[in-house]
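Hey, can you fold this one?
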Amino acid sequence: MAINFFSEKIDFKVKYKNIVKKWIRFVIISEKKSVGNINYIFSSDEYLLKINVKYLEHDYYTDIITFDYNKGDVINGDIYVSVDRVSENSKIYSNSAREEFSRVMVHGVLHLLGYKDKTPKQIKVMRKKEDDYLVFLKSNSF
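Sure. Predicted structure:
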C-alpha cells in the first residue's frame, strides 16, 4: 500500500515526501482505518476545471477534488489538487503556501475517511479535524 505524488501538466514536487507520507498514514490510522493506495495529483486550475466539469458537472475552479475508491476500512483514492488555487488561497487566508498545501492534503484524506463539508456543521467538524491534524504535522509528533 502506498501514498504517491504526481503532477499533471505542471512542474510541482512535494517537499519532505517521507514526512508527509508518515503524517497521512498517522491521520488514517488515528481514524481507525487502514492505508491503501492514495494518489495525490497536483495540477493547474485549468486541468482541475476540466475534471470538475467532466466528472462532477461543476463549471468552476476548486482547490481539490477527491475520488473515493475505499474498500471497507481500507482507504484508497485519487486526490487532485490545483497548485494555482492553493497558492491563491494561501494569500487570501494569510497562510504560508506550505500550510495551505498541508491543509488541502489532509482535507482530501478526511473526505476519504467519510467527512463531508456541505453544511455549516460539517464544515465546522472538518475544519476542527484539519486544525487538529495540522498541529501534529507542525510538531512532528506522529
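The radius of gyration is 14 Å. Let me know if you want another pass with a different chain boundary.
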